């Protein structure tokens, strides 16, 4: 157990999660559902298997020995998380990276961190009685304060910009619709934390087969992400059929822009689109690759990993939002609120890391 190393891993995971949407900007003339599904194949199917096969022992045997009940709940929570995941993409469309992630992940932080210990009946024993637990709980409260300040900064930015500026930075900007989608997405996305908790037995079996503890969470990701893939696959195919975009996976030209004589069609850069979508998917997977490593270092307070993960995602996605011009035209006051919120998020990770540290010291 090494909480400081665990915090570092969670920050690396947050960097990956806060960055994965950037490669999507390189995808041209594909519908959202096509790009999302292609990226999903890499992030939810290919990457989990590849990295589990490389870093763990007997992954197929481990999954075969997993009790059916563990399989069911781990997969179910993954499917529920998938509902939040697919609407998460819509949150980015309507609110942009910085504000969208702040709102959605705010809900996700609270539900994903507190529900597992409440469900297991460990809330009082782990978060109220010990001093270390109170530090962790204080860190969560500080994290939520930082998220609220970030959201207020985004709201201030939204009120200061005219419609033309909003459409320039986020083409489909819609604050009201975005907030509703972000709320649903954040609550459902918290189910990922429940899926990881439900899959603890898979990690234990993996260690029994000789896998190092730091890699033991990788087989769990295979099952959770399979559930998420199922939900997203069904919805994306429905959209492909409804929007008549199934052809995009193989077509080199857009149909809708063709003239009656077949001229002036717009080229679809298939190779680049697959490359950027695959890159986005693999970068997305790395958030939980590092998350599973960081969780192994947090001891009895591994559920606090979710708070660390969410805080670091918001931090890095906000930095990307600034770099990509989403805050162009915002006042100094709005930007100041943003920086204060980001500073508070950094402080929350320090507090939670310290709580885990003294928890580990008392355990020794």
Structure description:
The chain is mainly α and 364 residues long. The chain has one domain. It has helices at 3-19, 32-55, 59-65, 68-95, 97-119, 123-128, 131-160, 163-169, 175-189, 191-198, 200-208, 218-242, 270-295, 305-323, 332-363. α1 packs across α14 (305-323) and α14 (305-323) packs antiparallel against α15 (332-363).
Could you list some keywords that capture this structure?
globular; 15 helices; mainly alpha; 0% strand; 364 residues
Short description, anyone?
54% of the residues are buried. The protein is mainly alpha-helical. Helix 4 packs antiparallel against helix 5 (97-119).
Task: Outline the secondary-structure elements.
Elements lengths: L2 H17 L12 H24 L3 H7 L2 H28 L1 H23 L3 H6 L2 H30 L2 H7 L5 H15 L1 H8 L1 H9 L9 H25 L27 H26 L9 H19 L8 H32 L1
Helix pairs in contact: 1-13, 1-14, 1-15, 2-12, 2-13, 4-5, 4-9, 4-10, 4-12, 5-7, 5-9, 5-10, 5-14, 7-15, 14-15
Radius of gyration: 21 Å
Helix percent band: over 70%
Ranges where pLDDT stays below 50 over 5 or more residues in a row are none
Total DSSP E strands: 0
Biggest pleated-sheet summary: none
Terminal Cα separation, in Å?
A: 11 Å
Number of domains: 1
